[in-house]
């Protein structure tokens, strides 16, 4: 008989599925929900969470696997060059079942899969008959980042999680003792790695779900001036470190840097000089030698020496912030008394926020590509899409945190991929570069051209979200195949609806999306799947040039007279 926590959790999950992911099956959403809870501290987007789900059938007992480098999700196009030193690689592996118990068979699958796939001497292609494409692809992502950073001697952590609707505190001894077998399998390949295997039941999952991220943070200051709409403060380095540090995980709070225009750049000349200023303390205070940190906030209140800051975003000074964090993380600094200058700007106006980001970063050696999200065109797109019930996530997870349905949210990166696939008919590039399309100026100018009518972004956003929802509703389609097919199906559907093999922007804007129904989507999926399977139905096929070439031939034949 189900206990109260099991009943409550079941209700919460079903309510969340109906509200956020109505097209997802119950089993698929449970896996998504588990991933969201166990990875909550990394603040991943829904698209990122979906990318790590493996699917059923030849999954090696693994429902989700995620590799993170210094807290950032590693995807196919991850730039490992940014990881210069103090590299931490974390691998999260979980199995999620809606059953009310934990069994030995699942633990045995953990052991077998670990022995097979984490053995770097064994080519992954040799496991095609044993493990599905999604799992092999996820392991390949780990292998690539691990081998690329091996010379930097990364700290390696494996987190295994076995999640059910049962009682995590009442695991049978025969199941519990299998933990040592999994640990031995990991240690055989990575002797110096840190290992943990956790059993999570309904009560544990419910506790994770109830743990909400902070929206207000206290920053203790040494001195503080309060001009209009902001504060200028001197903050002891240790107090600023405490402000940035998550007390639960001990890691730096990634969500403080969501709106920042660039990631931590690792070991470069500027950061080495910052670190030198910290380590080689002289007569000069640190704030004399450093430009400080700029924080944008929606609200800030001063009480004595404490600033309570709501929704703080460090928009300038991530390099300084991270070096301060590394400085205190590497050793005990009880005698440290120096300070950093912190500016807190209070505004609720997105345009003002963007101006602050651009102005404070123009003074540094930063590439134009890093300022994309602050461009006027993205504010225009955000404002245009909203009345149509499509919510543009210019700032990561901002729309999700407002409770918008997942199927109505589109991120900048997904919109860029959709434009690449639908407008430019390059679904191969869209699939191969999930997070790097905005980095090259030539690509960016093609994707977000001022020559495009604003209506094309609505068409593309609606079409890609409808394709995603349709594919998500197909329980028989593996997650990796959904990822591989999405942009090809979107390209084919748009051409069919425009009745042109290579529709222009004008043709696309003229499409009546009322004509896009499940039959049209099913037909396009059938065409694309046939070509995809003929070529081998793999990640390499979806990222290569042959599939799109074949699809263009099919479209040309279908609309020869167009």
What does this structure look like?
With 562 residues, this protein is α/β, with parallel strands linked by helices. The protein folds into 3 domains: 207 residues, Restriction Endonuclease (3-Layer(aba) Sandwich); 151 residues, no CATH class; 187 residues, no CATH class. It is built from 23 helices and 15 strands. It has a 5-stranded mixed β-sheet with strand order 2-1-3-4-5. The chain has a 5-stranded mixed β-sheet with strand order 7-8-13-9-12. It has a 3-stranded antiparallel β-sheet with strand order 6-11-10. A hairpin with a 2-residue loop joins strand 10 and strand 11. Helix 10 crosses helix 11, helix 15 packs across helix 18 and helix 19 crosses helix 21. It is globular and about 80 Å long.
């Amino acid at each position: 008989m189900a206990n109260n926590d099991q009943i409550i959790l079941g209700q919460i999950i079903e309510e969340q599925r109906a509200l956020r992911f109505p097209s997802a099956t119950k089993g698929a959403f449970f896996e998504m929900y588990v991933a969201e809870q166990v990875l909550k501290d990394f603040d991943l987007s829904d698209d990122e969470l979906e990318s790590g789900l493996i699917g059923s059938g030849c999954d090696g007992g693994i429902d989700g696997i995620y590799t993170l480098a210094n807290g950032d999700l590693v995807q196919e196009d991850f730039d490992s060059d940014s990881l210069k030193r103090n590299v931490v690689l974390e691998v999260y592996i979980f199995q999620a079942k809606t059953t009310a118990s934990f069994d030995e068979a699942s633990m045995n699958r953990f052991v077998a899969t670990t022995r097979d796939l984490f053995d770097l001497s064994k080519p992954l292609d040799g496991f095609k008959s044993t493990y599905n494409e999604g799992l092999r692809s996820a392991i390949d992502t780990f292998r690539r980042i691990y081998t690329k950073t091996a010379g930097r001697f990364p700290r390696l952590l494996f987190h295994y999680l076995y999640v059910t609707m049962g009682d995590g505190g009442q695991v049978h001894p025969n199941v519990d003792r299998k933990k040592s077998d999994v640990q031995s399998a990991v240690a055989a390949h990575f002797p110096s790695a840190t290992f943990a295997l956790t059993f999570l039941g309904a009560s544990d999952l419910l506790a994770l779900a109830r743990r909400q991220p902070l929206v207000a943070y206290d920053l203790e200051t040494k001195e503080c001036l309060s001009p209009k709409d902001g504060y200028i403060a001197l903050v002891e380095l240790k107090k600023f470190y405490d402000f940035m540090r998550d007390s639960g995980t001990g890691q730096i709070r990634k969500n403080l840097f969501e709106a920042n225009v660039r990631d931590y750049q690792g070991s470069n000349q500027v950061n080495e000089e910052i670190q030198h200023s910290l380590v080689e303390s002289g007569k000069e205070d640190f704030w004399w030698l450093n430009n400080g940190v700029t924080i944008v906030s929606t609200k800030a209140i001063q009480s004595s020496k404490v600033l309570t800051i709501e929704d703080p975003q460090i928009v300038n000074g991530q390099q300084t912030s991270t070096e301060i964090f590394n400085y205190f993380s590497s050793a005990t600094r009880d005698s440290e008394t120096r300070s950093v200058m912190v500016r807190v700007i209070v505004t609720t106006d997105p345009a003002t926020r963007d101006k602050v980001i651009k102005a404070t970063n123009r003074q540094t050696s930063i590439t134009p590509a890093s300022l994309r999200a602050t461009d006027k065109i993205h504010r225009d797109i955000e404002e245009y899409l909203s009345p149509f019930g499509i919510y543009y996530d210019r700032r990561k997870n901002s729309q999700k945190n407002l409770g918008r349905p997942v199927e109505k949210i589109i991120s900048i990166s997904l919109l860029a991929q959709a434009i690449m696939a639908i407008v430019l008919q390059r679904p191969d590039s869209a699939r191969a570069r999930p997070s790097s399309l905005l980095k090259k100026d030539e690509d960016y100018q093609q994707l977000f051209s001022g020559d495009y009518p604003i209506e094309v972004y609505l068409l593309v956003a609606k079409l890609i979200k409808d394709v995603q929802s349709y594919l998500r509703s197909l329980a028989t389609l593996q997650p990796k195949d959904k990822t591989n097919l999405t942009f090809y199906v979107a390209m084919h559907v748009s051409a069919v609806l425009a009745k042109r093999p290579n529709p222009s922007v004008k043709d696309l804007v003229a499409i009546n999306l009322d004509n896009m129904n499940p039959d049209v989507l099913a037909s396009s999926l059938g065409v694309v799947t046939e070509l995809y399977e003929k070529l081998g139905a793999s990640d390499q096929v979806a990222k290569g040039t042959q599939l799109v070439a074949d699809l263009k031939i099919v479209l040309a034949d279908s609309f020869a007279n167009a």
